[in-house]
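wait is this the right file?? whatever heres the structure
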């Protein structure tokens, strides 16, 4: 009789662990979904922020394009941001 009681206890423990695993997997799926939503919201907010900064700067699109192009060329010519000239 002792073995049957032991197997019943292990069966109950197995079922409990399976339920806990299902719960954790469900939470994981929800967190992945939430992470994707937050990433999307963050990108949209950053885009709005950049547009607001551009708008507040009073610069034309052409001036902003020229600024971005000049910065990109400077980085290329100087070996990137981490370049330190030899003296």
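ok assuming it is, sequence goes like this
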């Amino acid at each position: 009789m002792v073995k049957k009681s032991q197997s019943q206890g292990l069966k109950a423990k197995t079922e409990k662990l399976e339920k806990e695993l299902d719960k954790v997997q469900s939470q994981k799926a929800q967190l992945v979904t939430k992470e994707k939503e937050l990433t999307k919201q963050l990108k949209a907010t950053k885009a709005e922020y950049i547009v607001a900064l551009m708008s507040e700067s009073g610069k034309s699109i052409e001036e902003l394009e020229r600024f971005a192009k000049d910065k990109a060329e400077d980085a290329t010519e100087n070996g990137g941001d981490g370049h330190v000239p030899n003296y």
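Helices lie at 2-57, 61-77. so i think its the right one actually
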